[in-house]
Amino acid sequence: MNLIVAANPFSPGQTGTPEAVLFWILAPLAVLAAVSMIFVKKAVHSALLLAWVMITLAIFYIAQDAPFLGIVQIVVYTGAVMMLFLFILMLVGVDSSDSLVETIKGQRVMAMIGALGFAVLLIGAVGRSYTGFAGLTAANTDGNVEGLAQLLFTRYVWAFEVVSALLITAALGAMVLGHRERSSERPSQRELSILRFRPGSKLPGAPLPNPGVYALHNAVDVPALRPDGTPDPSSVPDVLKARGDVLDTKAFEMHTIEEGEDESK
C-alpha cells in the first residue's frame, strides 16, 4: 500500500517517499541558510546564502510539478536579482560601516511603517493558504504556465504588484546609503588646477615621465631623460629600484650643453 501511495504523487493528503526525502534534506539547509544570511557579517556571504535559498525553492517548485515556476525562480531571482544585489554591493561598498546618523530625515519612521505593512501582508498570505487547497489537477487544467498566469494576474494581482515594487528596494536602499550631504561646495576644474601647481602642494604639477629613452631604448628598467639630457630616476618603478634591475643610461644620455657654449654647434 505504501508503494502505491509513493508512486502516485496526486493522492490527496499523501506525500511520495522521494519527495519527502528531498524535502527533509533540502528544507533544513534552506532554513539554516536563510537564518545565516541575516547574521553573517560579510555582505558577499549573505548574497551566496540568498542564492542557495532561491535555488532550493526552485527545486521544491520542480518537485511539485511546477517546472515553469522553478525555471523562472532560477533565471529571474537567482540570476537577475542576484546580479542586481551584486551591483548594489559595488555601489555601496562591501566594507561600508553602519552609521546611526540619518542622512534622510524620517527614514526610520518610514522603514518601520513599511515593515509593519509587509508583516500584515505576510500574515494575510499565510492565513489565506489555510482556507483550502485546489490541487495541481485543478490549477494545471489548461497548462502550468496558463494556470500560473491566471493566479498571478487575477487572484493575486495586488500581491504580485507589491512584490514587483519590492524589487527596486535594493536600489533605493543603495541610494539612501550612498547619499552624503556636502559641507562645502565641490571645487571646479580651475580651482583644482591652481591647487595642483601651487608651491607646497602635495600633488605633483605634472605626471611622471615614462621609462625608456625615445628612439633608443624603451625598456622599463631604463630611466627617462630630462630635457637637459640627465636621467630621471623617478621614471623607473620602485619595484625595479628595490631589486636593483635598473640599467645604466650613460650610453643613451645626451651630451649636456656647457654654460656659455654656443647652442648652434
Features:
single chain; 265 residues; mainly alpha; Four Helix Bundle (Hemerythrin (Met), subunit A); 3 domains; two-stranded antiparallel ribbon; 11 helices; 2 strands; 56% helix; 2% strand; disordered C terminus
Descriptive report:
Helix 2 (17-39) runs antiparallel to helix 3 (43-63), helix 3 packs antiparallel against helix 4 and helix 7 crosses helix 8 (157-166). The protein has a two-stranded antiparallel sheet. A hairpin with a 5-residue loop joins strand 1 (224-225) and strand 2. The chain has 265 residues and is mainly alpha-helical. The protein folds into three domains: 16-95, NADH-ubiquinone/plastoquinone oxidoreductase chain 6, subunit NuoJ (Four Helix Bundle (Hemerythrin (Met), subunit A), Up-down Bundle), CATH 1.20.120; 107-178; 205-255, no CATH class. The chain contains eleven helices and two strands, in the order H-H-H-H-H-H-H-H-H-H-E-E-H. Mean pLDDT is 72; it is low at 1-10 and 256-265. The longest helix is centred in the first third of the chain and has 26 residues, at 67-92.
What's the structural blueprint in terms of helices and strands?
Blueprint: H1 2-7, H2 17-39, H3 43-63, H4 67-92, H5 107-128, H6 136-139, H7 144-155, H8 157-166, H9 169-178, H10 189-197, E1 224-225, E2 231-232, H11 238-243
Antiparallel strand pairs: 1-2
Helix pairs in contact: 2-3, 3-4, 4-9, 7-8
Summarize the helix and strand pattern as letters: HHHHHHHHHHEEH
Q: Could you give me the name of the CATH homologous superfamily of the largest domain?
A: NADH-ubiquinone/plastoquinone oxidoreductase chain 6, subunit NuoJ
| Percentage of β-strand residues | under 5%
What is the makeup of the main sheet?
A: 2 strands, antiparallel
Task: Fill in the CATH topology of the largest domain.
Answer: Four Helix Bundle (Hemerythrin (Met), subunit A)
**Percentage of residues in helical conformation:** 55-70%
Name of the top-level CATH class of the largest domain: Mainly Alpha
Instruction: Give the tally of structural domains.
Output: 3
Work out the number of β strands: 2
Which strands sit side by side, in order, in the main sheet? Answer: 1-2
Contiguous low-pLDDT stretches (5 residues minimum) are 1-10, 256-265
Shape: elongated
Number of helices: 11
Which architecture of the largest domain would the CATH scheme give at its second level?
Up-down Bundle
Distance between the termini: 112 Å
Roughly what is the average pLDDT, rounded to an integer? Answer: 72
- Global Rg: 33 Å
Q: Output the structural class.
A: mainly alpha
